[in-house]
Amino acid sequence: MQLTQKHQEYWNKNLKITAILLGLWFVVTFVVAWFARELSFSFFGWPFSFYMGAQGALIVYVWIIWYYARYMNNLDNEYGVEEGEE
């Protein structure tokens, strides 16, 4: 099946946002944890490394999911492929 130009644009935008959010996920999950010992300043009374591991990363994960869902809903509406309510 040949994809039209419109399908290609939709797919490229989907891949781009997925790559950006996956990069953000990688940074929050691995880079911050890797340098956690160097993050020795206090954040709301807790060491920043503890806060990022216990709370901050979870907040970022929820934000990533929310943003991706919102972005894809808008992209679906823009390209006319949204799911209708039955």
TrEMBL record:
Q: Which UniProt keywords apply?
A: Membrane, Transmembrane, Transmembrane helix
Q: Which sequence ranges are marked TM in the entry?
A: 15-36, 48-69
Q: Which Pfam families match?
A: DUF4212
Annotated Sodium symporter small subunit domain residues:
7-82
- Lineage, top-rank taxon, reads Bacteria
Q: Which NCBIfam families match?
A: Na_symport_sm (TIGR03647)
| Name of the protein in its database record | Sodium symporter small subunit domain-containing protein
Organism, as annotated: Magnetospirillum gryphiswaldense
